[in-house]
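Tokens for chain A. Residues wanted.
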């Protein structure tokens, strides 16, 4: 693992009762992808209430905030909806807000 991780450190100051986030910079993308994929079904992470998340730029966060209502609606309708970076997909197709039906 020491050959696959460049840097790992905690974020922010310690606060009583809260766990600080940790940033991990992987040297190899494929290692990150394998770890990310295995984390989805990890009993250990579930038991310890740990999760992996992406460190997004402000632009990516704004884009996701704009697309979130569409993703949430798709989830409620039983469709497969997810984000990759700042882009959202519903049933495998990228969604673009101005082309979506808002009714």
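Reply:
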């Amino acid at each position: 693992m020491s050959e696959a991780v460049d840097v790992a450190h905690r974020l922010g100051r310690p606060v009583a009762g809260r766990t600080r986030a940790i940033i991990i910079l992987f040297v190899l993308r494929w290692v990150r992808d394998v770890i990310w994929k295995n984390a989805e079904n990890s009993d250990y992470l579930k038991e310890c209430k740990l999760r992996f998340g992406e460190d997004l730029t402000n632009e990516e966060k704004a884009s996701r905030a704009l697309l979130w209502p569409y993703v949430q609606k798709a989830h409620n309708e039983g469709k497969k909806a997810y984000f990759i970076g700042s882009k959202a997909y519903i049933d495998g197709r990228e969604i673009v807000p101005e082309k979506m039906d808002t009714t």
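The beta strands are 5-10, 22-26, 81-84, 87-90, 93-94. Helices lie at 29-39, 43-47, 58-76.
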